[in-house]
Amino acid sequence: MKKTTKVPKATITRLSIYYRQLELLEFDGYRMVSSEKLAWLCQVNPAQVRKDLGYFGEFGVRGVGYDVIDLQGQIKKILAVNRDWNLAVTGIGNLGSAFMERQNLSWRGFKCVAAFDNDPRKIGQTTPSGLKIKDIKDLDWVVDELDIEIGVIATPPSAAQGVADLFVDSRVNAILNFSPTRIQVPDCCMVENIDFTVRLDILTYKLNHEIGI
Amino acid sequence: MKKTTKVPKATITRLSIYYRQLELLEFDGYRMVSSEKLAWLCQVNPAQVRKDLGYFGEFGVRGVGYDVIDLQGQIKKILAVNRDWNLAVTGIGNLGSAFMERQNLSWRGFKCVAAFDNDPRKIGQTTPSGLKIKDIKDLDWVVDELDIEIGVIATPPSAAQGVADLFVDSRVNAILNFSPTRIQVPDCCMVENIDFTVRLDILTYKLNHEIGI
DNA sequence: CATTGTGAACTCATTCACAGCG
DNA sequence: CGCTGTGAATGAGTTCACAATG
Question: Is the C-beta of residue B125 closer than 7 Å to nucleic acid chain D?
Fold first, then answer.
């Protein structure tokens, strides 16, 4: 592997997208793929694909292309998804439940191993996937016991910051935040926000300007 | 309003985030806010806030800052969210249902006015919000009848492209796509993808590189 | 006189163009 | 010969620094 120059954030996002397309290509029976084809599928420039991969090594064969299976493996290693990750979901409302039931996540290695809420009526109940909903107050020791490394916030906005603080105190250094509230965390903790309204706002802006930015 | 130079995509995203913080500031009783404070709340650089707003006009008062209420109004106009938008949701599984029940969306003006599925067992049923689930085959005329301008894809990945095609044929030019499959649409149609696994992959990458990119 | 608005400087990201190589 | 890998060129986006001003 080569010297790690600074990798653009967007490269990581694209690697994840490449990976998904490689899965589909494999499913369709392809053994090799060129940067041009992969780029077309992912709606980017072929040079972009090669440059993105180039940050991490030389995975292709000149004159031929990339091995579909091998490249999957390489990207899994880069993204560190060549193993399972344990997640805790907080806020077992519609969204939290929907998140836990996603087929996708589990076989990609993202295991929802704990569910939390603060509503006494929910605590103790069992989710469709067989998880007993726990009191948010127990987050600390459950995280420790079950080796949870990623926290998911699917609570109402008003509870989001509090839950984030709990995660931080429990040494969970990665948070997927579905609440529309930006949460404040120390530098050691990474946050990815998924805010539906932001994405809808982008669509309305574009619609109104009749332009695909 | 000033000459429209090219507006960065990221500016639009941030405007949406500024807007959200302005709502919170208003709720907390603030009347004015400086670019410095707003920037801190949104975790960006103060110059960034001023530059972003500068693309669209002069909304502040030198020496004082921005009027919290007025700036909300200005951003709503820019994002074209100073009116309601009708949405159609396809795929009434866990995620589709969760999406429709979000408080947030409705009072921000995003109205889910139609729900579609292809499962005969679901068609005809009523959602908690009182919508009768329609057959996906009726999408075309329902879109027309109800003035739907934004389509939401919450179907399984295998159905995503087909539904996207239906939306495009029905002249829906904006799609919010929750499926992990990249959909192909003509240029006239805007797509925003919300892919949970991509965001989780970013988190695992960062965790593994022990660095907040 | 504190804070905005903005050209200029800078940093980061993408694309080009071609050398390198199976 | 075809496609990858990559330095160099271009382009986009962010931050600086300060003039403008209510």
Answer: no
Q: Check CB contact of B198 with chain A, cutoff 8 Å.
A: yes
Q: Using an 8 Å Cβ cutoff, are A57 and A21 in contact? A: no
**Pairing outcome for strands A32-33 and A65-67:** antiparallel
* pLDDT one-digit tens code per residue, A167-176: 999 999 999 9
All domains of chain A in start order, with CATH = 9-79 (1.10.10.10), 85-197 (3.40.50.720)
Could you say which nucleotides of strand C lie within 7 A of any protein CB atom?
A: 1-7, 12-17, 20-22
Nucleotide with the nearest C1' to B57 CA? C5
Query: Which chain D nucleotides are covered by protein, judged by CB under 7 A?
Result: 1-7, 12-17, 20-22
- Distance from CA(A47) to C1'(D10), angstroms, rounded: 14
Residue A6 is predicted with a pLDDT of 87
Query: Tens digit of pLDDT for each residue in B64-101?
Result: 999 999 999 999 999 999 999 999 999 999 999 999 99
Using a cut of 0.90, tell me whether the model's pTM lies above it.
yes
Mean local confidence (pLDDT), B133-144: 98
Q: How many CB atoms lie within 10 A of CB A5?
A: 7
In angstroms, what separates the C-alpha of A63 from chain B's closest C-alpha?
27
Q: Three-state SS string across B118-165, please?
A: CCCCCCCCECCCCCECEEHHHHHHHHHHHCCCEEEECCCHHHHHHHHH
